[in-house]
Amino acid sequence: MATKAYYPISEIGKGKVGFSKTRAIVEAAFYGNNVVKVNTLKEAYKLAKNSPGTIVTDMPVYRAEEIGLDSDAKVLLFNDGAITGRYAAARRIAGEPGVDCEALDKVAMDAVYDSRWKKMYHAEVYVGLDPEFMVKAHLLLPEGEENIMYSWMLNFQYMSDEYVKMYKNSKAVGDGKEADIYIFSDPQWSPVDHPGVNFDCLSDPAKKTLCYFNTDTNCACILGMRYFGEHKKGTLTMAWAIANRNGYASCHGGQKEYTLADGSKYVASVFGLSGSGKSTLTHAKHDGKYGVTVLHDDAFIINTDTCASVALEPAYFDKTADYPTGCPDNKYLLTVQNCSATLDEDGKIQLVTEDIRNGNGRAIKSKLWSPNRVDRVDSPVNSIFWIMKDPTIPPVVKLKGSALASVMGATLATKRSSAERLAPGVDPNKLVVVPYANPFRTYPLANDYEKFKKLVEEKDVDCYIINTGDFMGKKVQPKDTIGILEKIVEGKAEFKKWGPFSDIEIMDWEGFVPDLNDADYLAQLKARMQDRVNEVSAFATEKGGYDALPEEALEALKKVVSELN
After folding, report:
1. Measured between alpha carbons, how far is 328 from 337 in angstroms, rounded to an integer?
2. What is the pLDDT of residues 173-210, one digit of tens each?
3. Helix extents (H) in 95-172
4. Cα 28 from chain centroid (whole Å)
5. What are 365's strand-pairing partners?
6. DSSP codes, 237-260
7. What is the DSSP letter of 373?
8. Segments in 411-518 forming alpha helices (H)
9. Cα separation of 57 and 78, whole Å?
10. CA distance 106 to 104
């Protein structure tokens, strides 16, 4: 079995695998006499359909029986209220400096105690879709939150006969030292003063919400968070941490494999935050020029020894803003969050998308949306693309040298997305650095740095930056980015030394040729590169140096700045 759920008596106890204080608090809640086990997707659908406030649309689930539902299943819509995005400010990670686990454990204890008055639902899924890497995850939620549970079971892999068999035949992750993932969630929670509980340990400035992760022992507690994305990314947070411990690069991005005319394969991995264009690039069909298979557009892992890749989830959690009512792609919707509804000319309930109701309308889309999906890519990854929205970076540059290639990923610069709920006072327009486009990392940053450096240095993976935002005021269009990608995949891209840089090459792209003789441009480019130096320098001191990178990483960036001088 891939992760451990059952223990011989001799393996139960203090200091043994799967047993810690936080996990003891979280896991015990799953066995309460107020807990109802939900074993099938059909059960979850019925519970969600009948949950107060659910809107049962008249849109049928496409080929419902193929994904484990009855043939008459309909697309369900549920709206959360005022909050329609993730809230990073609520995350507390055990092991990080300043995180008071003793106080947080008491918050979790009281939350579990208060849940005794509610009927709770226990659901299970697999995260990871190949025998090389499959972990089992458990979610406990109160009655009234059935839509979160149903979407969670759809987003990850529900326990179909095929995958149950696969899981039984899968290898033990970490030689049997990795326990199942357990997540206790109560979206209805609000802080109530009880003896022994102090909410100062919460990082949410309002002290109203908490996402508490103890990824060393594969457990989490999510409190006061209604948004489904917290549960999806919370689960991935745990799976990525397990993967990191076991020799994989954890990837928040997309990957596709091209089959070229001569039969050769090319595997491209793109890394970017929500709204960066990673899904667009991952699913681009290139007008049928190549055979294309898609691993996933959001979550996968790369084996740093074999360079093979495994998808972590079958479905897609996609924005609905670009999919108007009646759009052909909408036939693949399974559940929808934070959109509106109306009646069509036949009196049928239809979705109203395009973010009319609020920003960041979302949907779970079926795996069938991408008919060229695979769960594993055996061919070794050929290239990594860091997607940035930095107005000083041309549409594409190539990075030479493993230290610079990896540290550029560690200083990936972008703009905020509507998928995020920001703390008061945070400027949504400020350029921000999100290492490796993964704000869900729960382990030291150096772990990711070393893994991506290994791919470039030892496995000859090429590394590029692509800018999908504006370049000095001119928008880089999707056709530009896709055209650049095609040139690289076909081996027709001609890169040359870029100005004074010894480790950065450029391919000229019409309309976007940078002028290094322009003093204003040069000053802005230097400022943005210096920002990266400052970020890496700050990593060494912030959070007690938890995210410090090797000195070579800082030196690679300083070299770029010095060459601009």
Report:
1. 19
2. 888 889 999 999 999 999 999 999 999 999 999 999 99
3. 101-114, 146-155, 161-168
4. 28
5. 316, 333
6. HHHHHHHHHTTEEEEEEEEEEEE-
7. B
8. 445-457, 478-489
9. 10
10. 5
